[in-house]
Amino acid sequence: MAKDTKPRRPRAETPKGFRDYFGADVTERKAMLDRIAAVYDRYGFDPLETSAVETLDALGKYLPDVDRPNAGVFGWQEEDGDWLALRYDLTAPLARVAAQYRNELPTPYRRYAMGPVWRNEKPGPGRFRQFYQCDADTVGAASVAADAEICAMLADALEEVGIPRGDYIVRVNNRKVLNGVMEVAGILDPADPEKHEHERGIVLRAIDKLDRLGEDGIRELLGEGRKDDSGDFTQGAKLSNAQAEVVMRFVSAKRSVKDNFARWAGRVDKNSTAKFLIAADATDRQFQQVLGKDFTEWPEYGLWNDAVVEYLGDLVTGSKTGQDGVAELLEVGSQLAAQGYGPDRIVIDPSVVRGLGYYTGPVYEAELTFEILDEKGRPRQFGSVAGGGRYDGLVERFTGQKVPATGVSIGVDRLLAALRAKGRAGQSLQGPVIVTVMDRDRMADYQTMVGELRAAGVRAEVYLGNPKNFGNQLKYADKRNSPIAVIQGGDEAARGVVQIKDLVLGARIAESASLEEWKSQPAQFEAPRAELVAQVKRLLAQNGD
Amino acid sequence: MAKDTKPRRPRAETPKGFRDYFGADVTERKAMLDRIAAVYDRYGFDPLETSAVETLDALGKYLPDVDRPNAGVFGWQEEDGDWLALRYDLTAPLARVAAQYRNELPTPYRRYAMGPVWRNEKPGPGRFRQFYQCDADTVGAASVAADAEICAMLADALEEVGIPRGDYIVRVNNRKVLNGVMEVAGILDPADPEKHEHERGIVLRAIDKLDRLGEDGIRELLGEGRKDDSGDFTQGAKLSNAQAEVVMRFVSAKRSVKDNFARWAGRVDKNSTAKFLIAADATDRQFQQVLGKDFTEWPEYGLWNDAVVEYLGDLVTGSKTGQDGVAELLEVGSQLAAQGYGPDRIVIDPSVVRGLGYYTGPVYEAELTFEILDEKGRPRQFGSVAGGGRYDGLVERFTGQKVPATGVSIGVDRLLAALRAKGRAGQSLQGPVIVTVMDRDRMADYQTMVGELRAAGVRAEVYLGNPKNFGNQLKYADKRNSPIAVIQGGDEAARGVVQIKDLVLGARIAESASLEEWKSQPAQFEAPRAELVAQVKRLLAQNGD
Known about the structure:
Two copies of one chain form a homodimer.
Chain A: E1 21-22, H1 24-42, E2 46-49, E3 53-55, H2 56-59, E4 75-77, E5 83-86, H3 91-100, E6 109-118, E7 130-139, H4 144-161, E8 168-174, H5 175-185, H6 197-208, H7 210-222, E9 225-227, E10 233-235, H8 241-251, H9 253-268, H10 284-297, H11 303-315, H12 320-338, E11 346-348, E12 362-373, E13 379-390, H13 396-399, E14 405-411, H14 412-421, E15 433-435, H15 443-455, E16 460-462, H16 470-479, E17 484-487, H17 490-495, E18 497-502, H18 503-512, H19 515-520, E19 524-528, H20 532-544
Parallel strand pairs in A: 2-6, 8-11, 15-16, 15-17
Antiparallel strand pairs in A: 3-5, 4-5, 6-7, 7-14, 8-12, 9-10, 12-13, 13-14, 17-18, 18-19
């Protein structure tokens, strides 16, 4: 009970898995989102901003990590017993809104949404518990025209933010094709859709990891199971060899079509065969370059898409769902082609399945195909930055009535990282002009200077730290990345002048250290007080060149 | 265990106290925040975006509603035992950041932040549990120049978003003056600052409610306590009559100075007395108009501010803290005056105390002085939209070292409501041009049309609902607030034309129902397909006039 017992000090720490964004990290993300929003707006999508908090009930159990259906969200219980939680994506809140406002909203309802989402996952390197998403969805449109539109808009958005054509590819598939494959393999019975749900979940998640596990890894997961490098064992779907074989033909679809592509192409144009002799191990990017060329040279479109659709059509023979999926794929492809979105931008790709359980039709994702260096300095493709698909059952959870819906989610942090990798973002903020304080009593004079500068649109501030040590003021200007410092002591004030210090030039001189330059271009000069604004603007314009 | 047991459907509801924002509600807030950010940027403030989640520890117990120190936040316990919570303001996270990154950040550190905050309060009419704030703070500047700068910036920001000069007033006071009053009243002992803390809290919160309780209500709370209209009793501070008298002289300061203002003014300029004969019951707005005039006519500034400072100086005689506060007030006022911010924009006002316990020096708030009608149709002043002050102790919680800081928080929703009340916001979104679907098989043609329109910068979309009923398509266009519908059936396609329907004119005609207008200005006309974009742009430009 001693009076001088010190209270424990709280620790100044961002909670584990969370981040703080400073300066340009904020403005660059904002600039990117503004550009994306402009594209969404042009396509007729309206903004929607739901609350960050939802009832746990409304969120449902649709987290990507379905292995832990009850975990994954940050939730708490209210005094009245209700459970609330932070949204983990922007799709679940949209489904809630579409149900709640179904009588007021237009049908179809096109909306976009941007904002943070939260995942209660174990934080790890590059794995954060709060991150931005940027979604666009169309609710109430059953036609695949809505899916095609989202794919085209996604391609436009990527180009708008600065990913040039050829550096990205939007890949489209259809979940009904996969369901058809499941039917043919005997693990999906249209008359009893809940049967084999567990097995199908394992198969879906296995296929989604093709990149990481390879075909052999998937084959293990279709059978008894798979032990990973760490020794952990994942239970398999325990399919028979014949069943697994059907699924594996789907898994290897892309590779197989690549292998056969020369033959397909040759059938369409006898003289073009050589152009399509793509090695089976060609990267997606090499492949895409040929597809782009192909599309330009044969405007009748579709060599690759035709080949894929024919392969898949064979695979799902006997399944109505599968055939519907193939027909939808063809329709999406031909609508996009008619609008000029060829396979150099949007391509049918049977390797896309998307891990989420709720997709019911077309699924799509955007991949950036340029290479970056991984942690070990090896080149690798940048990878996926957006994904989505059709989910006709999410609104039904609330209303009991099927409402068709389709949409895409852009991983904002990943896309921004891509822009930085391409040198299209990552600059630091332009610092303010600093008016230094030589004479504390004349603070009002210095404030008047910055007032004039701001009125002329110049970012400017008075140094507000302790002005005693002038060196600290210049160090501050340096830390702020300031282009110019303005100095006026009592002597200058009496003579009606100011000193203007060009910090950009000063830094350059300090680097080169050539005496000649010092003499010809002084980094500091005197100007009449009345010319302060004009001289600063002149210098800023000059340094901006 | 019957197979057909239906799962319970979740309810499609925004959680109580939360809101969804649609369309223009999102874009208008964004436009307003962008304008404010531009002002903050010009003043040299850098953006900061902290995570929505903080450790409960870091947040501390600084909620405005100090009567319930442990409630007020949405928090939950992590598996590792730590407590996390959603931020309830943007100041507590800044204090954490200033401590955490103190070696990397510049000193002073000027930052702005915008985003939602969460309060776990009982929801009620107009009381929400998630709302936006927009803050600007300077950390590490002890000088009142930092406070003056924030006040000037706040005035600039209000004008930038569309609140004209004369419709707002930034009011400044200083917490040290109040502390001086507390010393004189004998409920604050500089040698033992924790003594009487409870009483001071009651006094502070009582004074902050002057508008609502009136002077009589405050007097009750300074004594035994007060029973409100509902019969609830609030404990009073139990001051003696003499003590309460000192506090009441502070409470009535503004009214008293208003009463005496003619005399003060007369002292300065014998001829001006008549101009200052302001009735004691003059509204702030009437009063402000005279102050504004006064300031323009007497550029030597300060009649009102001088009068207030003299009154307060008398009140805190004998208290060093109080005298410091008065000196700071004078300094803030004269710095602002030197920059041209007279009492028509920023005024010293002893009635400002701000409810938060952590303020240590200047406190300020922005009030909108124009009148709106309340729920009962009576005119009332719009009221406060922003507030802040100096809090030199918040960073110290983490580091043990005093770090001076000052800043303002704008209530974003209130300010947006004000803009709407002034007719400067509240429009609905411009709807897209709708290309209708007459022939489902020619979807690609319609998509090509919207593609061309978008490429020309026109917001446009294809109708993606079921196209069977053409009336539904026009109803949709109406609901979307579309300016134009484009129609092309098989006949028009064969002839290479489109029908362009001017929905704005159509609506006007439908309203006026004059046959003459119908004839002279057809709301629908035919145009060659090749001229689609040009005709739509012409019509949009025409309707925009």
